[in-house]
Amino acid sequence: EEKWSQRLEELRHFRKMSGHCLVPHTYPHNPQLARWVKRQRRQYKLMIQGKASTLTSERVALLEDIG
Question: Which SS3 state, helix, strand or coil, does residue 8 take?
């Protein structure tokens, strides 16, 4: 939970600096953020398909708030 919140803050910072949330799959400045964003995208797709996912509706709301 703490690591997820930390990555969320890193994503907020990325958006502030770049104007978008499209973190590339290979992002040399923060590879951990790139992997995390890729994982969130995958978990979101699973959730939409009705499959088991670690992404909760709370987390989706937090991500949607960023953009």
Answer: helix
Read off the pLDDT band of 67 (50, 70, 90).
confident
33 CB-near residues (< 8 Å, 6+ apart): 7, 10, 11, 14, 23, 27
Q: Residues 4, 59, 53, 35: is their CA dihedral positive or negative?
A: negative
Query: Please, what is the Cα angle at 56 between 53 and 61, to 5 degrees?
Result: 135
Predicted confidence (pLDDT) at residue 1 exceeds the cutoff of 90: no
Distance (Å, whole) CA 28 – CA 46:
27
Tokens of 55: 């992404």
Model pTM above 0.70? yes
